[in-house]
Amino acid sequence: MTTDGIEAVFLTTHNWGKAAKFFQALGFNLEFETDHNSGQLRSGDGPYLFIAEVPASETPEAHVVLKVPDADAFRPEAIVDVMTPFQDTHWGTREMTVRDPDGRIWRLQAPAKAHK
């Protein structure tokens, strides 16, 4: 199984309010806001934008998140450098990180496991 396109762009910021207003000025609509200075925005049917505020001591970053339909069925090729295998996140998905040949870190996101 392979990835299924871009799921999201994940950004960190030093000021959630200013960042949200910036992207809203560019045509993004706020889908939801959390109570810890983060939220999700979207423009059209494309990938969503998730922005999370971090302390001033951290450098703001941007990550492209690739969609994986089923984490249990995903088997990356041997040339893929897996940094962290799929793990449950506190926001209800499963996430894996891989490193490309130039050293960039990519996030892969899959739905959470269904609990039976």
From TrEMBL:
Q: Which domain of life is it from?
A: Bacteria
SUPFAM superfamilies (alphabetical) = Glyoxalase/Bleomycin resistance protein/Dihydroxybiphenyl dioxygenase
What this protein is called in its record is Glyoxalase
Q: Which organism is it from?
A: Aliidongia dinghuensis
